[in-house]
């Protein structure tokens, strides 16, 4: 088995980190759009559009937490190899988990208010 050099390892971690960026963007846009539709729409049919948007935000956030947990040891190891090169904007683990739980809670409550 071929050993990975430090540079190859760092490149692999960067590529894995970039893979989660579309999910982050989707979560933010779906959450904001769903919130605006849910709060300011007077039409029930339009308000129903918020449900799939909230579901997209929930899925994307859960994937981001999974990706953060899965890649955290590799990112820490890569940062120790080259401390001058920031991989991506790194959010504190507890902060991302807490904000994800708050967002999912808000989305679930909003979905049930729309349905019932």
TrEMBL record:
Species: Salmonella typhimurium
Identification of the protein by name: Inner membrane protein
Transmembrane segments: 21-38, 44-66, 87-115
Protein keywords: Membrane, Transmembrane, Transmembrane helix
Superkingdom, natural source: Bacteria
